[in-house]
Write a structure and sequence with these properties.
- The chain contains 6 helices and 12 strands.
- It is an alpha/beta fold.
- It has a 7-stranded mixed beta sheet, with helices on both faces. The chain has a 3-stranded antiparallel beta sheet with strand order 9-10-11, with helices on one face. A two-stranded antiparallel ribbon has the order 4-5.
């Protein structure tokens, strides 16, 4: 997760709580009907290192343990993240004397992500702009856009976002890269954010947009299902809801690997750098964005 420091008049940051409400007609799998876990290929697309663990770690760990081939595509390296450990705070982009634009922090977060994926059992990972997630003429690296907290406690755009960050560069080229990555991996299921991006981080919203656009570009060759991580529960939402009661311990320990961003307070509680307590939930819910559930 990335934040910029809270302003003096900002309310407490708001985060949706995972898995609190379940629809009467919810389904309990992300897979197409009749597909066994051992034959399933599921691609998760996230914005920053740590998002995969804090948002979908229980699901990813559950699927991997059931034999599915779980892959992750990460859009940025989280270069704008706040840093929790005192001995690494010099890596923050706004720290006096820091001039590397988050490169050093990005390298640390890459290693944290590697460790988290080992815990989750995820064998294949790529960054947007690299490997099969690159298209000719597009950047090979997308920088974290950052964010700020609005007066209502909701995420808003970072006024100082760099010109080479995810949200400032071509969404169409990014979608083409995602589409090419999907063609290479051939997943039957893709999972990303819903249109609100969870709590509204601009990079989460952009990631949702480019994955949806990638499905449009793929047309009839698109995977069978596209799921969006549910933010606030809406009883009027008519889309299919999927409920995954996953692996609590794997999620918690994967989150622990992201030590620059996450503090594990207890078995069930964690905090980001803003020290807002949140529940570590093994229940994660999704809404169907494309396909037939």
């Amino acid at each position: 997760m990335k934040t910029t420091p809270l302003g003096e008049n900002t309310e407490v940051p708001y985060y949706p709580e995972q898995g609190t409400q379940v629809s009467d007609d919810a389904v309990y799998s992300l897979l197409p009907e009749g597909l066994n876990s051992e034959d399933a290929r599921v691609l998760f697309v996230h914005a920053h290192p740590d998002d995969e663990s804090t948002s979908t770690g229980a699901t990813m760990g559950h699927l991997a343990a059931a034999g599915a081939q779980v892959s992750l595509l990460t859009a940025t390296r989280g270069e704008m993240g706040e840093v929790i450990p005192e001995d690494l705070k010099h890596l923050e982009t706004w720290h006096p004397g820091t001039t590397d634009r988050g490169v050093g922090l990005g390298r640390v977060r890459e290693q944290e992500l590697t460790e988290a994926l080992e815990v989750l059992g995820v064998k294949h990972h790529e960054y947007l702009g690299q490997g099969s997630a690159h298209v000719e003429g597009a950047p090979e690296l997308y920088r974290d856009s950052g964010m700020a907290w609005g007066a209502d406690g909701r995420a808003i755009a970072n006024p100082d976002a760099a010109d080479d960050c995810l949200t400032k560069l071509s969404a169409e080229a990014q979608a083409q890269a995602v589409a090419q990555h999907i063609r290479t991996l051939e997943p039957q299921v893709v999972v990303t954010y819903d249109n609100g991006g969870g709590y509204g981080h601009p990079d989460h919203v952009r990631t949702h947009e480019i994955v949806v656009r990638a499905f449009e570009l793929l047309g009839a060759d698109a995977p069978a299902l596209l799921w969006g991580l549910e933010g606030d529960f809406d009883a009027q939402d008519a889309r299919v809801q999927a409920v995954i009661r996953g692996d609590h311990s794997r999620k918690r320990e994967a989150m622990r690997a992201h030590a620059t961003q996450v503090i594990i307070i207890s078995d069930d509680i964690f905090e980001f750098s803003n020290r807002v307590p949140q529940k570590i939930s093994a229940t994660e819910t999704y809404r169907l964005l494309a396909g037939k559930g």
